[in-house]
Amino acid sequence: MRAAIHCRPTMRTFVLRARAAPTDSQALLAGVGQEAHTEILAHTLMNACFVAQAHRPGVVVYLVLESTADFSRTIRFDIDAMRDIGGFDERALLARIAQALDVSRGMGKDETRDVTSGVEVRTTSFERLVQTLAVDHQLFLMDRKGTPIREQAFGQAPCFLLTDHIPMPKKAIPGLERLGAKKITLGRTMLFASQCVVLIHHELDQR
Ligand SMILES: C[S@@+](CC[C@H](N)C(=O)[O-])C[C@H]1O[C@@H](n2cnc3c(N)ncnc32)[C@H](O)[C@@H]1O
User: Fold this and answer.
1) What is the predicted pLDDT for the residue at 53?
2) Which secondary-structure segment (H or E) carries 29?
3) The domain made up of 12-206 is a member of CATH 3.40.1280.10
4) Are 16 and 168 in contact (CB under 8 A)?
5) Confidence at residue 8, expressed as pLDDT on a 0 to 100 scale
6) Which of 140, 142, 147 to mutate to test the pocket of ligand 1 (most atoms within 8 A of CB)?
7) Is 79 near ligand 1, meaning CB less than 6 Å away?
8) Is pLDDT at 9 greater than 60 in this prediction?
9) Ligand 1 pocket, 161 CB below 6 A?
């Protein structure tokens, strides 16, 4: 693990709802640049957790993989507890995600298994995960039609909800809003989830 950067006022949590991402490890690895666009998971994880020559303390990332024959897989990365992730390039990060999927084989609904230090896998749905996070996080749904991020006040535990290239289902949004999620925007340009993460970090870094 590389040296930590300092002066971080908040915990930052990111949830990537990867609607097209397969829960089979080989299909995940084969999905780079294909319809599943599994590179999105690696890019988002990289930009959430790392800066040049350091990692960002206080960051937790949940990747929720939803293209499945049984249950969604939610992989939790706690950067402060992670030791050697084996590199931060696309291949290394996808290998770590694939490892978590292999560990999760045969799990029943809503089970949790440790993968390696700071990484765990759960058979938990996006909806269930967000319900849990709503208890002690301030939820933000990233949406081009939301409140400009500059105008938004942040507490100590913001949690940002993003999707891969497939949008959040419209019918899911009222449920998220009932849990307190507020829509915030980074401008009119449609960005990749990984680019949103960089801009969110930058905005919070300025506060
Ligand atoms: C590539 S976009 C999703 C594209 C998808 N076709 C759609 O229409 O939502 C990936 C994620 O980034 C978020 N996003 C993209 N641009 C944004 C922006 N300018 N402000 C806030 N969130 C943005 C989206 O809401 C989504 O969660």
Assistant:
1) 84
2) helix 25-30
3) yes
4) no
5) 47
6) 142
7) no
8) no
9) no
Among 37, 144, 190, the mutation site with the greatest number of ligand 1 atoms within 8 A of its Cβ is 190
Q: Residue 109, SS3? A: coil
Is a pLDDT exceeding 60 seen at residue 2?
no
Contact residues for 205 (Cβ-Cβ < 8 A; gap 6+): none
Written in H, E and C, the secondary structure of 31-87 is CCCCCCCCHHHHHHHHHHHEECCEECCCEEEEEEEEECCCCCEEEEEECCCCCCCCC
Q: Is the distance from CB of 170 to CB of 122 less than 8 angstroms? A: no
pTM of the full structure? 0.94
Residues 159 and 200: their CA atoms lie apart, in Å, by 11
Q: Tell me if 83 CB under 6 Å of ligand 1.
A: no
Cβ atoms of residues 159 and 60 within 8 Å:
no
Cβ-contact 127, 74 below 8 angstroms: no
Report whether residue 148 contacts ligand 1, using a CB cutoff of 6 Å: no
Is it the case that residue 91 has pLDDT exceeding 70?
yes
- Res 180: pLDDT: 97
Give the mean model confidence (pLDDT) for residues 103-121. Answer: 96
